[in-house]
Every structure is written in C-alpha cells, then in structure tokens.
Amino acid sequence: MEPARGETPRELLDRELVEVLQELRVAVAGVQILFGFLLTLPFSTGFHRIGHAGRWVYYVSLVTAAVASICFIAPATQHRILFGSGRKDVLISRSNQYGIVGASTLTVSMACGVAVAARGFFSSWLATATATGVVILCAWAWFVQPLLTLRRALPPQAAYRSPPDQ
Asked: What are phi and psi of 2, to 5 degrees?
C-alpha cells in the first residue's frame, strides 16, 4: 500500500498508467501537427529557396519529428498488445523512457523547424540563435528544471536509482 493515498500496488499501477498515457496524449497531438506540416513543406512554393544546408536541417527536423511521433504513440500501441498480461509495471517504465526520447527528439525537430522557417525570412545567424533559444528553453522546461526538483525532493541514493528490469 502507498500510505499517502491508501492504494494497493495494483491501484497504484493503474493510476500511474493512466497518468502517463494522458501526458503522452498531450504531446502526441503537438508532434503530429508539426510532423504533418513538415511533410507538406517540400511541396509548398518557396521551399526551393532554403538551399542545400537548409534542406539538410529540414531533413533532420522531419526525421526527428517522425521519431518523436513513434515514441509518443508506442505506449498506447504497446498497451493494446500487453492488455491483460499483468505487465503494467513494464509498460509504465517503457512509456517513461519513450516519453523522454520523444521529448528529446521533439526538441531537435522544433529547433530545426524553427531554424528553417526563420532562415526563410532572416539571416542565418538569427535563425541559428532562434533555434538555440528553442533548445535551451526545451532543455530547461522539459529536463533540467524537473531533474533539479527531483534531486531536491529525493534522498541522494533514491534520485539515482536504476529503473526496474524489463
């Protein structure tokens, strides 16, 4: 039992699974909109202006958006396959890992997408600076700040525990 909530281990797993799937549902909508936009971009007028380097930056943005989509969708698909198997603990652990990889690749995709779009209207240094700002903000809001909070909230040995075996 978790004393603070009075949950059984099964109730705890049920709640954690619902929470992680809800969190990923929010992320998947955003990444799919970005991915859909990126898929149409080469067919728009003016795409030819981005140049050779811009096409590579666009390609990185496209591929990392695809990877982020895969990572954010994987937990729901795995839940369907593993449903009723009694392996929610594994599903929750994997979903957490997929969420972190998805957020990391989404950071890259957004930064590259912003760089390509900004380069269409401004100089390359401003596009690079803007993309760097996106990376810094994502890194802070999605990774650094929660890790600092976790580090302060947990005793030193608990903050660095390894995830359960899968």
From this structure: -90, 115
Beta bridge partners of 92: none
Closest CA to 61 of 146, 118, 21: 118
Report how far residue 37's alpha carbon sits from residue 4's, in angstroms, rounded to the nearest whole number: 45
pLDDT in tens, the chain (166 residues): 445 678 888 888 889 988 988 888 888 999 999 999 999 999 998 888 888 999 999 999 999 999 999 999 999 899 899 888 988 899 999 999 999 999 999 999 999 999 999 988 888 899 999 999 999 999 999 999 999 999 888 776 655 555 555 5
d(C-alpha 143, C-alpha 103), whole Å: 9
The number of beta carbons lying within 10 Å of the beta carbon of residue 146 is 11
CB-side neighbour CA atoms (13 Å) of 81: 8
Q: DSSP class of residue 155?
A: -
